[in-house]
Amino acid sequence: MRIQAIRVSIVDQNGNRWPGTKSLDYFKYDEETSKKVFEYLKQRAPVNFYEQLYTKNEILQNLNTNLTRSTVPDYTQRKEIVLLTENAFKTFHGPKSVPGALRKYFLEEITEEYFIEMYLEKLGFNYEEEVKKLANDPDYFKNIYLLVEPIAYFRISSYRGGNLDFRIKYVGTITEVAHMMTKDKDVGYTGSDNFFGLVHPTQTYRGYNFGRTPMGDGYPLAIYVDVNSSMTVAGL
Question: Burial level of 19, CB count in 10 A (0-12/13-18/19+)?
Fold first, then answer.
């Protein structure tokens, strides 16, 4: 069982937030497995997450900034969460995932009316006003995109001499988690490396551990470089 949740934002052709809109986190919550994962996430508190919901570009534009983290320890209590008790997307992450689940969901499975009400309008997009602009510019909507980013729970554990000394937990988009990791260090560690720099296959002094939990056991951490920004980000 893994988190089945997405951060949804409205952006322009360059990936920048559409003026006047916000982001929301949508959780699959229409069957017992997804409800159990949501409750498990509640029990993981305290966890690290940002006070504001960011898009990928907003993180990349603030690489060297210490963004404000929430003082609320329980991620499931944030007001920007939408629980999809019906008309939810199919499982898209994990061994029982449905190929192309999210794409099919938005393009084939939900009605236009539901999409406008549950996504566009909830995100602050004034559809009735915006659609009027098509009269002067038939291609107007071609510059508007829906940005969908998976939400992940991520735990790092530090070992010294085989004993667990410290662990830190994160929730957010992959880009948010990677950004938080670039700001954090092991307790008592005085070196220049941060957690992000320490998580790689050849590191033996500190590393990562997932264990067997309802979030999934032992799924790997992949490291890659975004060549457009030169930022190293993590993907699960």
Answer: exposed
